[in-house]
Every structure is written in structure tokens, then in C-alpha cells.
Amino acid sequence: MVEIARRDLLIGGALLGAAGVGALARPPARPPAIDQGWFEAAIPSAIGAYRAATLAGLVLPLRDELSQQLYDGYVARAYVAPGVAPVFLLIAVGSVQDYALQLHRPESCYPASGFGIVPRGTTPLRLGARAVPGTVLEARRPGRADLVLYWTRMGEAFPTGLWPARALILRAALERRTISGALVRLSTTLGDPAADAERLARFAAALVTAMAPPARALLLGPGA
Questions:
Q1: Which of these, 30, 12, 28, 24, lies nearest to 175 by C-alpha position?
Q2: Which residue has the higher pLDDT, 35 or 199?
Q3: Where would you tag: which of 2, 52, 114, 167 has the fewest CB atoms within 10 A of its CB?
Q4: What is the pLDDT of residue 42?
Q5: How many other C-beta atoms are found inside a 10 Å radius of the C-beta of residue 203?
Q6: Cα separation values, 80 from 45, 52, 136, Å
Q7: Buried b / exposed e along 111-141 (16+ C-beta atoms within 10 A)
């Protein structure tokens, strides 16, 4: 455990040091921001048997000044369908990503709301023509437990951890190019973990299918 912590510290120091060197150069031109109104309208209010509804209980990331600079498009909704627990959807997309991406990762925002995290590994998602690795975890606090499924996109890659995401950002910085990014998080009340993960995966596939290509590309990259 000590060796793992030391290795992570060394990797983190190397990445941050290199990023500092890259920051000395003139940054590449920033692409146009995503229009928030268009993005909200692009997320369907009906997905299969589910309909958007106003419900309390959605765990939200901290909306500080830095996170508002990171993400141009931001949608948080609940979806209900007969006979099943609601699905909570959070999508954050940005035309430019940097080292603060982890502010919106569930491993950060759930603990900030008093939850403990139980990782359950990754699962392959078939989203349209794309095969995307999804991360599954349980979030628990007294009186509540959620099953969470999410994926992140950085450029055309789908990193499943913080350091791979930072490595992609660093590579782009050293190559003097910008990369866009997205985080898509789905959650539901925890019952049977395997069945809940499968239901969220089906919801994700239906969401992607229901979206127009320009909006779908924000979640899955160009050509999705």
C-alpha cells in the first residue's frame, strides 16, 4: 500500500511538473463554447418508457467558479417509468478540458455529499456504434444507497481513471492542441447491483439512440 501511494505520488508529480512547463508556452486558441440552451434542448425529455420529472435526490457536483469555466453544457435530470426506481442523469460537457476535470467525477462529488464509495469495476457499454468502458460504483450513506454508472470522454478516448485522464490532457498540452470532454453519470436507488447496472446500461444506450448526431458527438466524440 505504501509502495502504491509512493508510485502515485511520483506519477502525479511528474505529470504536474510537465504541465507546468507546458503552461509557459502560449496556449492554443480556445474553440467556441457550447451553447447551454441548445444543449439542454438536445437531451431528450422522453427516453424509452422514461419521462423527465422533477424529483429531489440528485447528487450534484459543486458548482464553483472553476467548474463553470470547465463545462459549457450541463444537464441534471430525473427520469421516471412505471414499476422501476427513477434514473438520475447528469451530463457535463466542455469545449476545453484541464486538470480540474476530477471535480465532477462521482468519486469526488458523492463523498462531498456524505457518501462512502464502494467501487464495482468497469463494464463495457454499447452506445450506438461505440464500445465505451463504463465505471460502476456504489455510493452509500445512512438511509440511502445508490448504484452509479458513468463514463468520461477526453477527445476521442474514454479514460476510466484520474491519471489516464490527466495523461491525455498533458499530451494535448504538449502537442499544443485543445481537447473537448464529457462526463455522463447515471444513478438509481441500489437494489440488486447487477440488475441495476444492466438497467442503467440500457438507459444509456436508449439515451444515445434518441439524441441527434451533433449532440451525440458531444458524449461519444466525432463520428458517433
A1: 28
A2: 199
A3: 2
A4: 94
A5: 22
A6: 11, 6, 21
A7: eeeebeeeebeebebebeebebebbbbbbee
Map grid coordinates 472553476 to a residue.
Answer: 66
Q: Are 176 and 28 in contact (CB under 8 A)?
A: yes
pLDDT in tens, 128-185: 989 999 999 999 999 999 999 999 998 889 999 888 888 888 888 788 887 888 999 9
Residues 176, 106: Cα–Cα separation, whole Å? 29
**E-assigned strand segments in 35-166:** 46-47, 50-53, 73-80, 87-94, 116-127, 130-141, 144-154
- All cell numbers assigned to 13: 508529480
Which DSSP symbol is given to 101? G
The kind and range of the H/E element at 181 are strand 181-189
Note the pLDDT tens digit of each residue in 6-53: 544 444 554 445 444 444 344 556 667 788 899 999 999 999 999 999
Sequence-separated (6 or more) residues with CB below 8 Å from residue 46: 52, 210
Per-residue pLDDT tens digits for 92-129: 888 766 654 444 688 888 998 899 999 999 999 999 98
